[in-house]
Amino acid sequence: MNSFSYSRPDDVNAAVGEISEQTQAKFIAGGTNLLDLMKENVEHPQHLVDINHLPLGFIDELPEGGLRLGALVTNADTAYHELVQKNYPLLSMAILAGASPQLRNMATNGGNLFQRTRCYYFYDTATACNKREPGSGCGALTGYNRIHAILGTASSGNTPQCIATHPSDMCVALRALDAVVRVSGPNGDRTIPIADFHRLPGDEPERDNTIEPGELVTAIDLPAEHFNTHYTYLKLRDRASYAFALVSVAVALRLDEGGQIAEARIALGGVAHKPWRNPAAEALLTGKAADTTLFRQVAEQLLDGAQGYGNNTFKIELAKRAIVRALDMAYAGSTQAGDAYKQEDIL
Amino acid sequence: MSNYIGKPLSRVDGVAKVTGKAKYAAEFDAPDLTYGYVVSSTITKGRITHIETSEALSLPGVLSVITHENRPKIAWLDMSYKDQDAPPGSPFRPLRDNKISYSGQPIALVVAETFELARYAASLIRVDYREAPHETNLDTNLHRARKPKSGLASLLKPPPPKPRGNFDEVYAASPAKVEGRYSHSPEHHNPMEMFASTVVYEKDGKLTIYDKTQGAQNSQLYVTQAFNMSFSDVRVISPFVGGAFGSGLRPQYQLFLAVMAARELKRSVRVTLTRQQMFTFGHRPATIQNIALGADSNGKINAIYHDAVGETSQFEDYTEIVPTWSPMIYPAENVTLDYKIVPLDVFTPLDMRAPGGVTGVPAIETAIDEMAYELGIDPLELRLINYSDRNMAEDKPFSSKELRECFRQGAERFGWAKRNPKPGSMRDGHNLIGWGMSTGMWEANQMPARAEAVLTVNGKLRVTSATADIGTGTYTIMTQIAADTLGMPMEDVLFKLGDSDMPLAPIEGGSWTAATVGSAVKVVCEELGRKLFKLAQKIPGSPLAKAKWDDVEFVDKHIRLKQNPAAAVSLQQAVDQNGGAAVWQKSTSLPAMMKQKNYSRAAHSAVFVEVMVDEDLGTIRVTRAVSAIAGGKILNPKTARSQIIGGMVWGISKALEEESVMDHTIGRFMNHSLAEYHVPVNADIHDLDVIFVEEHDDIVNPLGVKGLGEIGIVGMPAAIANAVFHATGKRIRELPITLDKIL
Amino acid sequence: MSTITVTVNGKSYTKEVEGRTLLVHFLRDTLGLTGTHVGCDTSSCGACTIHLDGRAVKSCSMLAAQADGSILTTIEGLAPGGELHPLQVAFNDEHGLQCGFCTPGMIMTAADLLSQNPNPTEREIREGLEGNICRCTGYHNIVRAIQLAAERTAGVPA
Questions:
Q1: Which of residues 655-684 of B touch C (CB under 8 A)?
Q2: CB B63 within 8 Å of CB B113
Q3: Model confidence over B29-57: pLDDT tens digits?
Q4: Which of A122, A201, A250, A341 has the CB geometry, 3.0–4.6 Å to A162, for a possible disulfide?
Q5: Which CATH number is A230-334's, of 3.10.20.90, 1.10.101.10, 3.90.226.10, 3.30.390.50?
Q6: Do C113 and A101 touch (CB under 8 A)?
Q7: Active site includes B113?
Q8: Confidence class of residue C30 from pLDDT cuts 50, 70 and 90?
Q9: Are B292 and B331 in contact (CB under 8 A)?
Q10: How many CB pairs under 8 A join A and C?
């Protein structure tokens, strides 16, 4: 690692001030991703602002019934928080599907939003990567792309600039829940709907999100709608745990009294540069009862325009099947974390 | 007497390991220790045209950057770089010249006062290359396959036997035929401990080296040859090894670089590889096999064709025994086998847990399952129809083979009799359930070895041999053997290993350590016992004065008459008779070649597996597995069971998860981290059961042991692949079976 | 360079560290506590797991400077006073170790698991240890060791 200066402010304004004054400065919270990238020489900040001592370790109920998650609450404390488990079990489930206990004990809610892709080429400085080094090319496009994106990869040219995916599980649930990110910056505070927080690579794959220089995430707001009865987070990966998603599906359904679907949210992970939703596909479910054919139609529409690049082409069909399964599970009120992985012996 | 052998004892090194006191190569300290960091090539083939080190060298605390341009003079002949496990060819020499032969090749070593400084300085080194086209894809280079060169290392890995009978004719006329192409991806050993060498530069220029290795003496030999040093100036120590699985059979390049830097700087140096660099040396080679089987309508297999093409490097001919397993298991009269290699721009492959065995056996065992379906015969029944007590590759009887009993006990424990052969006939919700089985086999070898035993003046026994314990339990079983041979409590026995100054032992691999070093420990303790017996006889009025060696036994710290246990002399009394000196013995154990040569010696297993496959999502879990092992005498069921279970988990890994994925466009392994190179995690593992079948063998070696390091893995992949077929009706011949292959 | 004060295994240390020094290297190289192993360097294997203020964390993914003011426990300090912790006894008894390299991290993670959940099911153990890789691979006995330690300490306050 390069040497860097290090500071540890204890209020938000000081932190924002410091980051704005320094060149090539970065915030560090849990550090679980940033330090790895520094070790691999992918990131090389000159100054680290350690924000762990800012007063952002709260989980507060909002007057309108929502919940505000402080940016510095760890993923573990969030997932196991009584109100999160009761009101937003989808979020809890998604968080626990990611990383490992030790990492969840360190990683923070704010930091999780800033996880960078797990693209092999992004991590390997011997290879071409437009995200790491704009203009150098995309090794994954012609190389090994099993874990790469199938949606939203378009750029202004003929070939995509970047086919990396966003690796977070938590953010997929946040997307389904329509969370709102609160930030403080040199120009004051603002809010960013989660849908607009992460971005597609387009012609600027080096930018993962829409945050402006000097801005600090202070909290994530969860709206009042809980979706705590008909939901699931289904994560498919190459081993039973501790692997990034090939495809993940967060489903949140609200049923009316007759058992018809009043509202549906479906967010996909592992398929794009950001958690993916398609309101038109979700709308197909409104006013309908569970029906596998309908679920498949929804899946087809969600994957509309999907493109494979060789090793990852299977994800198109896998995602469709995962959507159907997740809708089935959510509708049935089955909260198993993907029954493909249930542990009980059956014989 | 057997107080300890055969008992499920806890490890003698267990407490050191649970308290963090067991020290591995990167954990030994030295005064003024410096840290080396390796710079790796970013291209796959070509030349370095310029290497710029000035920016790195300008950092305060950076001591040296060694490259091919400024390296000190080293040995000139290829011979000097040949370690005990070197295949025929010209061994890789780090920093030899500007030539790049594979991606990730070490091209410089940065030495600095701290690890992070060395790592940072390494990132500042700028390299210009002239690239040349590379070939890394086995599949597209099969036309370049050729016979391997033979050499010393090929003694243990002979080419397949010549054809017997007439395969073409008999196959053509066979009423039942199957044929298929089987392949698997390269794999890297990835032990948890990354390769490291701590080279302590002593005042007189002698080196004490803490190295991660499966053979301290192999590392010592390599260093002395490559740097033209004398044996007395190089001592290699390796008391604990954090897993190896074959990766430590050859000295790795960090050893060479650390020694070079220590000699150059006249300071102690530690070089630790990164996990990414763990993908830049030996690996299990990608291999493509073709098999054709012809059987009569009763299921008797009369014709076997089995060929294999494996990858190797451009500089050494690494080989494995692959097709030969077919006639070793199945006694067909008409057999044609072939084995070739393709040199590619990769590092030389390296033996990895059950090398060749877990390549060839899963292929033939999958083909046998296909034949069972072709014939409509139960897969276990088909194996019994073709059971043989002779190894038809060598046309010799087995010294022992309790495989039939493995089949019986394994099938019973698993409940195989209840199996409905129809694919897709069992399910639970979305999960299709499949049952599959396989035979496993691994050769039981014994090598020459030496050991030393000393009974100290206070009656404690110390036994040493320069072998390694890579986690298998060598410390424990050797302590058991020594204690039982001399009738001593294990608390009074200390077994030490992993030091090049100790008596000669071969590299620790091939499942031969229990047989090889165990025999040496037994022999040296027996011969020490003879000395003690003679001393005991000299004691005035000794009750053993007139006894013969055959009349006595060693029990409870005494030498006593078998017929009259009261006539006894304590070991302490015997030592006391030695004029105040410890009693010392060094002995050699040699395999009884005359006795062994007429027999084929091998461990066998029968493996039964249940899988659950999600019919929509393609996810596969191994929910149950039973492995029945015929592995000769089991010295310690506790360590033995762990060895087998570990092998079974490796089998699950090989069948379902593990592969090093090469981007052939750039010729580089891309999933070079433990996050993306998938090995099983705890949640992948369910019910694993091990049965040790009673097997007596006094030909294989004096202890009757067969070694258990490899046999656990060999049968698993085919059992899983066959179970996946039974669940889904899909025959996957390409490992690993990831979910996309099921969709 | 900055000065940090940490309590490690009950003993307070005040040391100068470079900003870029990882906590794991501080423990191993500066304090000589080499029982905390490095198996991947990139937060993927769990061998470097220690307790930071009572919770299991990966010491390769944290700067030493970030630990300033914290209370740390490593495998060497899990059982104060030279005794063995029930998990250490159980790992030895149940043969939950082979090469031993992953063992300290496994035990430290298991200790955190048992402090949150004194009677975990097999599934909870397998999921709770998802961040610790054993290559040898002794998951089977590791699970049994943790179950045994849980049984033996049932009713005993942590």
A1: 673-675, 679-683
A2: yes
A3: 999 999 999 999 999 999 999 999 999 99
A4: A201
A5: 3.30.390.50
A6: yes
A7: no
A8: very high
A9: no
A10: 83
